[in-house]
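User: I'm new to structure prediction. If I give you an amino acid sequence, what do you actually give back? Let's try with this one:
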Amino acid sequence: MKTRRQAAPNPAWRDRKAGGLGAWLTLVLAATALVACSYPTRNQELASLDTRQGYRWNALAGGELEDTLLIVTASGGGTRAATLALSAFRGLDRLTLASGRSLAEEVDVISSVSGGSVTAGYFALTGTAGFDKLEHDFIRRNGISALLWRGLNPVGLVALATPSKERIDLLINYLDDTLFKEAAFDDLRLAGKRPFLILNAGDMVEGTSFAFTQNQFDLICSDLNQLKISVGVSASAAFPGALSPVTLTNYSPCEAQEIGRWPKTWVTNAATSNWHDNPARVRRGRVARTYALGTKVPPPEGRSFIHLLDGGISDNLGVAEPFRLLSTNEVSPNFFNQISKGKIRRVIFILVNARSAKASELNAEIATPGAIAMVGGTINAAIDNATFGNFERLETLLRERFRAAAAELPESLAENFRKVETFFVPVDFAAIEDGACRRDFQSIATSWTLPKKQIDALLIAGQALLKSSPKLSKVAEALGATGMEDLPEIEDACALMEAARR
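Assistant: Good question. You get back a string of structure tokens that encode the predicted 3D arrangement of the chain. For your 502 residues, that looks like this:
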């Protein structure tokens, strides 16, 4: 009886197979060896505390508009927000003063949240020279695929299985690879010029804004200089659920605070003042006190760690910190005092608002929404409403504060608050009169990846919305700036958006 002849083992094939498996296992083991079992330390302890040192307002040189404070705020909204902010900056760059400098070069402060923080951080680092790289290396790139690959490849899966690498690290590393190249806040300090960057995240325990400024970091005895910009941007953009929080170590109380120039009296004064007089100030002081007490007392009075998520959970327009600097004299930079002394005579806000208003199919269904729909809807609605409320109230609140200051101060100082000019220029889809066009822009997804045609339309929209604003015309007239006629029309943006819809 014949039997099938068994093939002789092939040593070469076996070696190749073993070699392939061995190489894969070696890669996995190497990745495992590279990661430790402890959680990452994002921030470093402050060696010395001096309000004259570090990344602070006074370390940065201003432009030629010495009596004008030009503030740009950039909202959240993923790539939609980053693109609209870039478009607005390009529009400001096309408006020039008599000296030839553009309004983009005269920006003093940029305060941002979430997707807007990508553009804000990169603009602070590179200025107008970085516009094209931001567009081509980040905005037009498929960020979702890049992030998924980083997390789902064998090395990424092994790393994420350990405490030493968290989901937020996918975004931090992606931002460094594409844009920031490990740059830290100290690089902004060494550059020595404005804009002063304020990245805003949300304290997930308190629900309050956490600004990445050295003034804030003084409270936790930490050195902002050493922190990577990508970490601040990622904390600002850490969408709840999809990404893990950025966790900062609280080193307070520390020796540097005891021997340094730390004006901590405002914390006690604010935390213990009458709540009925100013609830926002009291709440801000109470939260600051938990940071300052740190490890000295147990929670909830003290905080050993601060967990930060998307800044949109508390202020999705990035206006809270600039408003605080303008309306109180508690912290640096003290714009309130500069106004009282007549050093600032004009305040200009450019408010870039990429708020979404996408129609929901839930409104047409009687069925109870599922768990995923409820969680997503709750988070998105809260973030969008935080944008709307702050945007609508900012102008009124600031003018009321200036009037109150004029009533409280000596006449020599009060007069400066009565004379200060304020301009509020919205860059907002809501200003688009054509209903279909407006809904198209407001329906663009909050994502790190957008279709090419939508990006094309957004890159025109920010500039066109600037041009359509009568308030920007008043700013240009006050500053003697030209170039408004060169900006695109809103109809151009709508045409591109219509093409994207087809």
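You can read the tokens as a compact description of the fold. Here is one thing that stands out. Residues 1-9, 11-18, 377-389 have pLDDT under 50 and may be disordered.
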